[in-house]
Every structure is written in C-alpha cells, then in structure tokens.
C-alpha cells in the first residue's frame, strides 16, 4: 500500500514563465513537467486521491486521452510506482505514445471511428474490476478546480497589468473555465474567447463543441465564453520569443496577431 509519504514523491508543477510581447501575454507551459499544462490537473487530482486513500500500490491509473493527459498521468504513476493504462485512438501522436511507453505506461488503442462515449464505457467496465483508479478528466467540478491554482499563479505574474481578453482553445474545457473564472473576478470586463477547430479541421487535443459535446455529462459549459471562434486551418511552428509553440498555441497566437489584439492573455498549453 502507498503510505502518506508517497504523496510527497509527486513532483509539484513548476511555475512557468509569463512572456510579454507588445501587450500579448503567453503563459508558456512548454516549460512545465512533461511540457504540458495537463500535468497540473493530473498532479492535483492524483494528490487528492492519495490523500483520500483512493489510490494504493496495486492501483492502475486509467484514462482516455488524445495525448498530453496520458503523458502526464503515466509520468505521475511512474513517480509513485503505480501502473497506468491510457486509452487512445490509433491516430494519436506517435511522439506522445512513445512518451507514455518510455515511463512504463500501457497503451490501449481504439479505432478512430469508435465514439468517445464507447471508450468511456470500456473504462467504466474496467473500474468494476476494483484495481483501477480513473483520473476522470471529464468530471465537471474537479477538473475546473484543478486549474484554479494555475489561475492564481497567472494573476500574480500579471501584477497590475490591464487585461482585456483571455483567448483559449477548448479541449475538455477545464483550462478555459478554471483559469477564466478566476481571472473574471479580477477583471470583470474581461472577454473570454474560446478557440475551436472548424468541423473539418483537426488540432490535437481540441474539439469543435458544436459537433462533439456530451450534453449534461460534458465538463464544458458552452455558455461560459463571451465569444467562440472557429479556425479554418492549423498554424504550425510559430515561435514566441524564441520558444516554439505547439499547434493549438501557434493557431491561437496567429489569431491574436491577425486581429491586432493587445492586453490579451493566451496559454501555450504544450
């Protein structure tokens, strides 16, 4: 069984830099452990589960993931000497699959034509076996809460800066809601802008919520943002102050620059 010291074996998230260029602020999570903001959510949820004795030495940490969440979960599992099982579509990023395998994570691949709820049904069935602990990144309350400390970190780094927009891509919806709800209290006039791929566009880890939304079960409240923008193509390999951004961040930064927005915050999630 894991003892109380096991929680301290998990590396806490790093405080990543907030970059500023002409009033465009980029929270650079590429500098985070495993290079992704998802590490913050996984850290918080696993830490709480250890405290509540939801995880022990025989546990298998399980989740369905497009990539970054699976990478973070398998890393944390390795840190506490637990096992991990990541369910992914067979068209997932090979680099992220390699990262999962490199720390001992097991990958279960599914055909891309299988609806996501069906994969969640498979995970639910496995949960009945007793040895599994589900991260459950689709849980409404806990996923939003798991990003609140991240929001306060950003708020502290902004200091007295004026902020007019928070522009954020939508995956599960935890980041935009967790960070946005805290910043909205500090900046009541802040406009929260959701960035989503158009229906025919694929951006790893993101979704079009008009097409892919699970209704009441979904952690993302489609009424939360002030504005929703669909992007018709993916921008790749954009740099911000010599730091290379991933596809979602590159596309978001391109949108900000094309609109000549300043006093604007975005998160380079990975």
Task: Report what the structure shows.
With 270 residues, the protein is of the alpha/beta class. It has two domains: 4-35 and 142-268, 3-Layer(aba) Sandwich (Rossmann fold); 41-137, Rossmann fold, CATH 3.40.50.1100. The chain is 33% helix and 20% strand. The chain contains eight helices and twelve strands. The protein has helices at residues 38-51, 68-79, 94-102, 116-127, 140-145, 148-158, 174-186, 247-258; strands spanning 18-21, 24-28, 60-64, 83-89, 106-110, 132-134, 165-169, 191-197, 227-231, 239-240, 243-244, 264-268. The strands form three sheets. It has a six-stranded mixed β-sheet with strand order 1-2-12-7-8-9, with helices on both faces. α2 (68-79) packs parallel to α3.
Quickly name the level 1 CATH class of the largest domain: Alpha Beta
Look at the helices and sheets and give the structural class.
alpha/beta
Strand content: 15-25%
The total strand number stands at 12
Shape: globular
The assigned CATH architecture of the largest domain is 3-Layer(aba) Sandwich
Distance between the termini: 33 Å
Describe, in short, the structure shown.
The protein is an alpha/beta fold and 270 residues long. It contains eight helices and twelve strands. Helix 2 (68-79) packs parallel to helix 3 (94-102).
Characteristics:
about 270 residues, alpha/beta, Rossmann fold, 2 domains, four-stranded parallel sheet, 8 helices
């Amino acid at each position: 069984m894991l003892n109380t010291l096991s929680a301290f074996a998990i590396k806490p998230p790093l405080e990543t830099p907030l970059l500023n260029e002409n009033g465009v602020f980029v929270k650079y999570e590429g500098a985070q452990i495993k290079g992704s903001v998802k590490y913050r959510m996984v850290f918080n949820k696993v830490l709480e589960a250890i405290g509540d004795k939801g995880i022990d030495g025989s546990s298998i940490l399980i989740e369905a993931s497009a990539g970054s969440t699976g990478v973070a979960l398998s890393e944390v599992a390795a840190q506490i000497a637990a096992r991990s099982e990541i369910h992914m579509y067979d068209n997932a990023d090979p680099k992220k699959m390699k990262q999962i395998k490199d720390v001992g994570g097991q990958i279960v691949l599914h055909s891309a034509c299988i609806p996501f709820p069906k994969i969640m049904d498979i995970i639910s069935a496995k949960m009945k076996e007793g040895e599994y602990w589900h991260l459950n990144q689709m849980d409404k309350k806990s996923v939003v809460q798991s990003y609140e400390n991240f929001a306060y970190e950003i708020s502290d780094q902004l200091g007295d800066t004026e902020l007019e927009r928070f522009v954020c891509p939508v995956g599960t919806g935890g980041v935009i809601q967790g960070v946005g709800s805290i910043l909205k209290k500090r900046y009541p006039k802040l406009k929260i802008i959701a960035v989503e791929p158009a229906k025919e566009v694929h951006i790893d880890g993101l979704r079009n919520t008009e097409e892919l939304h699970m209704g009441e079960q979904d952690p993302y409240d489609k009424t939360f943002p002030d504005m929703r923008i669909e992007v018709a193509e993916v921008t790749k390999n954009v740099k911000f102050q010599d730091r290379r951004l991933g596809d979602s961040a590159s596309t978001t930064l391109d949108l900000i620059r094309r609109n000549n927005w300043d006093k604007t915050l975005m998160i380079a999630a990975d």
